[in-house]
Each structure stands twice: as C-alpha cells, then as structure tokens.
Design a protein that fits this description.
With 246 residues, this protein is of the alpha+beta class. The chain has 10 helices and 6 strands, in the order H-E-H-H-E-H-H-H-H-H-E-H-E-E-H-E. The protein has helices spanning 3-27, 39-44, 50-53, 82-89, 103-112, 120-127, 136-150, 154-161, 169-180, 222-227, and strands at residues 32-37, 66-72, 166-168, 188-195, 198-208, 238-240. Helix 5 crosses helix 7 (136-150). It comes from Rhizobium redzepovicii.
Length: 246
C-alpha cells in the first residue's frame, strides 16, 4: 500500500469514527429517569393505600400526572444503612427517616406526589435521592418542577381529554414532540397494567440528561433535559386512561 493510499484510508477511518461520535452525541445519554404515574390506574390495584382511599375526581391527581420519582440511572441506596435498605425493600416506609423539607416544598410535594400519604417520599429519598448530589429540598424541588412541566403540556391535555378511552403510543409520542421538541417521544417509555379485562396506562418513564441531577434543574425546561437523553423503546403500545374511582 502506498503512503498516499494509507493516508486516504486513515482519513476515511477517522471520518467514520467522527461521524459515529457525532451520532452518539446527537442521540444523547440518559442519566436520569422522571417517573410519572397516572394515579387512577395505580389505585385500581392499590385501593387500600391511603392516597387511593382518599382520591376524588376533583383532586389534582385525577386529571394530572403524579410524581413517582426522579431516578439516577443504575444507582440506588447510596450510603444507606443495611437496616434502612431492608426496611425499604420490605415496604416498611413508615420506619424510614422523615424527609425534612421547607413548608413550601412539602405542600407542593403533597399535591404532586399523593403517595406521600403512604411515605413514598421516604422510599424515594432512601433508594434514589441518596444517589444524587442534591439535598432533599433540591431533589424533590426538581421533581415537582418537572412533573409540573409535564402537566402543562400537550401530553397531559391528551390524557385529560381521553379519560375512560384508549390512547395509542403514536398519539402520545406526537404530544411529546409537540411540547418538548422533535424526537422527545423517542425518549419515553409507557407502562400499562391490567385491571380486570382492561389494559390501563399506569405511567410514563421519561429519559433525562445529566443536568437533571442539579438544583439548577428546578428552572430548566423539561424539553431541554429530554432532548439530552438517549432514545428508548416505547413499551406498551396502547392503553385506557383510567378515571378516578373504583
């Protein structure tokens, strides 16, 4: 092989590698997951939980997404004692340490996360929040902000307009793209559960970039965080948007 051919081959290989790097950068990398529940569907199979027994058609979680959690990828129970980890896995959330928050954040979280009535915030902090570099105040503040952005989007409008009816994956992806930019729907996974013979949409897990793990995310656009994440498969392809009540 001549030196000219070698240089040409080397250049071609470098261009391929550069192109692959650009493609990887363009697709982003998911570092956090925003888990948003459709509470009426969750409550169909958890009717005895306090937040389900008290749910009404007028409460916010009847027509809005609820905050389940903000999860760092592939990390959990960071610096947590074996006793707390065991209690959490056994569902003994009332024995976990109380989460200290400002009155303002506590009130906002109680609305965004009905599961606080069952100690969900203690579980989320012990399992996931401890693996971020944020304080509990910032961790839950970011979660409340992000689910709030979801609830002022075309996604929430789509769900609220179709309560009691089935919604297809493509419609949900299109709503994400409309509110959070082209390709946003490719960074979302939908979960469904059966209640009797009905397949209901139980929630969405939304990929976010590393920037979601900082206090500054409390003022960052959800679309920016989604666009910085990697693509995923959508999961459940169709489900009913459940109404509050059993």
């Amino acid at each position: 092989m001549s030196s000219m051919q070698l240089r040409t081959l080397t250049f071609a290989v470098s261009m391929v590698l550069a192109g692959a790097a650009v493609a990887q950068e363009a697709s982003g990398r998911t570092r956090f997951i925003l888990s948003a529940s459709w509470q009426p569907a969750f409550c169909q199979t958890n009717q005895k939980k306090a937040e389900c027994a008290s749910q009404t058609g007028e409460r916010a979680d009847a027509t809005n997404f609820s905050l389940h959690g903000l999860w760092p990828m592939r990390q959990d129970y960071c610096g947590v004692s074996a006793e707390q980890k065991a209690a959490d896995k056994d569902g003994k959330w009332d024995t976990l340490p109380a989460v200290t928050l400002s009155a303002e954040t506590q009130a906002a979280l109680a609305k965004a996360m009905p599961g606080t009535q069952s100690g969900l915030e203690r579980h989320e902090w012990v399992k996931h929040g401890t693996c971020t570099k944020m304080s509990a105040e910032d961790y839950f503040g970011v979660g409340v902000h992000l689910v709030g952005a979801l609830n002022t989007s075309a996604v929430r409008d789509l769900f609220a307009a179709n309560i009691g009816k089935p919604v297809k994956a493509e419609a949900i992806k299109a709503a994400f793209d409309k509110s959070f930019g082209p390709g946003a729907g490719e960074r979302v996974k939908m979960s469904c559960r059966r209640a009797g013979n009905v397949k209901m949409i139980s929630g969405l897990t939304i990929g976010l970039s590393e920037a979601a793990g900082a206090a500054s995310a409390k003022s960052t656009g959800l679309g920016d965080l989604i666009q910085g994440a990697g693509k995923t498969t959508f999961g459940c392809d169709e489900g009913v948007v459940d109404a509050a009540g059993f």
